[in-house]
């Protein structure tokens, strides 16, 4: 499928939010995988890894795959909207934003993306990134999962590109422990 959703959660504390209804969940502190399914969800936990394989996903029809893709996209967009309504804790936002920018900067060349912005509030941040082509985005998106973000999980959603040779931008959601 052309849509990838990835969420890595730094811990299972109540400050971290989980999304539901995703196709594949893989848990590990050091494992990242690229799997061609309707969506990929990765949850890193300092405790024990757990893998749930999608029983119904393998037999899903193209219509249900498209429905899943639309649900994942809507959930990600809703989370980004909620971030925009979140109150700003200036000292937390500045400190965490600087850490996230530094982490993204350290992998930008490897991931072949540019950082457009990072906006932090009181427990979430949204980073806007751009790849030179949609093809590069689909090949390199998982690089966003490699750095350690300061007490934050990361969710990445790539929508279907209209043209794989055109630039692709996405908003990376960072779900952090409450400040």
Shape: globular
Largest sheet: 5 strands, antiparallel
| Overall domain count | 1
What is the rounded distance between the termini?
A: 37 Å
Provide the succession of SSEs.
EEEEHHEEHEE
Strand content: 15-25%
The amount of helix comes to: 25-40%
Integer-rounded radius of gyration: 16 Å
Sheet with most strands: strand arrangement: 1-7-8-6-5
Q: How many β-strand runs?
A: 8
The tally of helices reads 3
Query: Roughly what is the average pLDDT, rounded to an integer?
Result: 73
Secondary structural class: alpha+beta
Keywords:
three-stranded mixed β-sheet, disordered N terminus, 179 residues, alpha+beta
Describe this structure in words.
It is built from 3 helices and 8 strands. With 179 residues, it is an alpha+beta fold. It has one domain. Strands 1-7-8-6-5 form a 5-stranded antiparallel beta sheet, sandwiched between helices. The longest helix has 24 residues. It starts with a strand and ends with a strand. The N terminus is likely disordered.
Q: How are the elements arranged and paired?
A:
Blueprint: E1 4-8, E2 25-27, E3 41-43, E4 51-52, H1 62-85, H2 90-111, E5 114-120, E6 124-131, H3 134-140, E7 152-158, E8 168-176
Parallel strand pairs: 2-3
Antiparallel strand pairs: 1-7, 2-4, 5-6, 6-8, 7-8
